[in-house]
Input
Amino acid sequence: MSKQPNIDTSPPVSDEIRKTTCYMCACRCGINVHMKGGKVAYIEGNRDHPINKGVLCAKGSAGIMQVNAPSRLRSPMKRVGPRGSGEFEEISWDEALSLATSRLAKIRKEAPEKLAFFTGRDQSQSFTSLWAQSFGTPNYAAHGGFCSVNMAAAGIYTMGGAFWEFGQPDWEHTKLLMLFGVAEDHDSNPIKMGLGKLKQRGAKVIGVNPVRSGYNAIADEWVGITPGADGLFITSLIHELLRAGKIDLDYLARYTNAPALLNSDPNDAEFGLFLRDDDGKMLVIDRNSGKPTAFDKKGVQPDLRGTLRRAGVTHKAAFHSIAETYLAPEFAPEAVAERCGIEPQTIRRIAAELARVAFDEAISLPIEWTDFRGETHSEMIGRPVSFHAMRGISAHANGFQTCRALHILQILLGSVEVPGGFRFKPPYPKPVEAHPTPHCQSNPMAPLDGPHLGFVRGPEHLALKPDGSAARIDKAFTWENPMSSHGLMHMVISNAHAGDPYKIDTLFLYMANMAWNSSMNTKSVIDMLTDRDDNGEYVIPNIIYSDAYSSEMVAYADLILPDSTYLERHDCISLLDRPICEADAAADAIRWPVIEPDRDVRGFQSVLCDLGARLGLPNFTNPDGSAKYKDYADYIVNHERKPGIGPLSAFRGDGTETGRGSVNSEQLDRYIENGGFAVTHIPDSARYYKPWNMEYQEWAVGMGLFDTPQPYLFSIYSEPMRKFQLAAEGHGERQPPDHLRKQVHDAMRPLPVWEEATDDEGGEYPLHALTQRPMAMYHSWGSQNAWLRQIHGRNPLYVPTKVWEAHGFQDGDWARVTSRSGEIVVPVAHQAALNSNTVWTWNAIGKRKGAWALDQNAPEATKGFLLNHLIDELLPPKGDGLRYSNSDPVTGQAAWFDLRVKIEKCAAPDEPQPAFSSLRSPVGKGPKNLAWKVGS
Ligand code: SF4
Output
């Protein structure tokens, strides 16, 4: 035998592994960062992590290019040229923080509301809101108003939680999953893994989406619905189920407010409100006694048909209204089919399929459990039908009611919190009553009177000044958008520019690319950011911005506070915030600096600790005036929201306590040793029926999720919405102004009824136009990433076959696309698997020249485009002299997907129009080839 060469076929790839949490999207998978010579060599998934169990997506592995991106900001900067020029001077942190402190201190002393502090897709909202509350401004929110507040708020108002971070399908048992409008970038590894399990078991997936891409491409059935009609389709499914008697009556009677007695006298001032006892508890008719009884009394059996005449007023179980509403002929499949773009027989078949799987293929787990009425059940009955939805159905002016309708559909099937159905993730489920109401009382040198954001229960909770004007710059929680639980970030710049409801001094933004893809009507937002008054001063006087990268927004700020990247910083994925829990477990996680920044940057949250101390804010200073927290890591460990409850739930006290426990100075070390996360499993008999399962309720109290058990009923009928309607009808002390009475009355229907989202019937602008983000990118972060750019570096407008042929388009053609507010000229491409009245493109691929350290000729800057230029942040005038925001009238969610356009073939310009001038890059341009070597 000849001698073989001695080759090491498996050399060590790293000399150390550091375990932390991915932040290339919001799924927050566990990652093992392989280090070589102190540098990141590569990233793999953490097999022990509850979210991804070792799975890593393309975005996650490309994190190495994100932390080495040429577009990283390098130092604090002060603007030296005009706004928008990109001309900056690098300054020290001391100078930057002194500049910010002197300006903010003056505001706080005179009028704290003159600070508007809004954050983008960060994951530290419990911290940033505490900072804003301590400062005393009412003007704080994160980006939920332009993301998916409709989904979150509709879920919480209806059933105490929603999809995505709040809950998930029971991947182990579900047999039929319906996906509606899922954003492919957002719901990444967890849903891919879940879909993989379904495919393995032969479960059926139905995708409802105008575009057949991503998850819809692997669905067993694709329903190419026309945009904005999801609510109509869903209510038609409800109609069919009610008509066929295929609803879970026992579930409705036990766990929902369907049997609760409603005042049914249209002449009574309490018409449409629930009848309550002296303790404020809803009354039901008990089937045992035939008498009105508190809904939660031991042994009560609520009657769905209950009626009661008391003091001359008739009260009927809410179920009567539910049945009357949805059995109306307007919801019959034939009546809705054309608007939905779905054949009546398809609607009927899907309704029958849902019923068959829910009831004929019901499952049972032999697990005993006890409900809040004291009844012990020998089994857990499962309806193995589940649903999942995201922005596609919510970013419409009718999105809130559409999301409510979807939740009601799954409740009618009895498939929420049961085996095979939709399951909540701790800290959900939580009734609306467990959430704060919004607060807006602002006084100089004082903290706000409570949390900014919350869930209104009636007009008394609106954020209005004594004269009835909006207390907040974004006009959240006003009659225009009463339930705007996440604020309206997309209205901040235009309201601040208009001085409506008042002028502000400083706009303080974090991670929000408002001068580009995060704004509607980008060009006019840029004009507002640069507009000057008669004195030559900027109309929005001062803009402070923090970001890790040289995004388009950087050029429009006066002061830049450069953030660190996700491998260079501490973060806390907290149960107080948006945690990483699973349906069977509470879980939280950290990020920690696996590498040190090689630039003069600081984690934004640490900067806020410093600014808070310099400003002397309560919660950020000790009684002697010294800084309370050295940095964000110090805050994560030592902050207590309530005694014993801090940002991280595990390794508290002596290191063995979970949920509640005193501060443990070694807590971060324990998390790092544990792989960067901690998991606490829910006991077996508490895993399902959580809102009503006393063992879960007691487990949740032990975990510090709430202080006492709080079982509750799902709100098919929304009493808070009815209270707003009553105000619009002329009842109560707080009533809407006359010009909004009709809007409030129509929008706040206690049972969701579909309405067309826009007044535009499709005459002049016959096509719907959508954007979605590709699976390989998250927000705009991905298109500066050297690896991910190779997947999507440009974006055409996808055109359906009917329109393609009608216009005689050929490959390589361009089109002029016009909406009521703007025009773009872009390349087109043919897509057959697309609703025939819809065009669409990928969002946030197009970049402005000079931004993100990209070359002037980069395809993102010369071939990519934004649809945003066509979307107006205001609706057309309605003739009353006022302009209303392009938002859902319930929550204020930005109605991105109500866009209507027309297209026509045109000559190809050199690059998509409108073209913007090049920004001067404060970080220069990246090298032609991005390459380096780690280790020897
Ligand atoms: S799904 Fe998101 S969090 Fe998970 S690896 Fe991919 S980018 Fe990272």
User: Anything to note?
Assistant: The chain has 23 helices and 34 strands. The chain has a mean pLDDT of 95. Residues 93-110 form the longest helix (18 residues). Residues 105 and 615 are 6 Å apart (CA to CA).
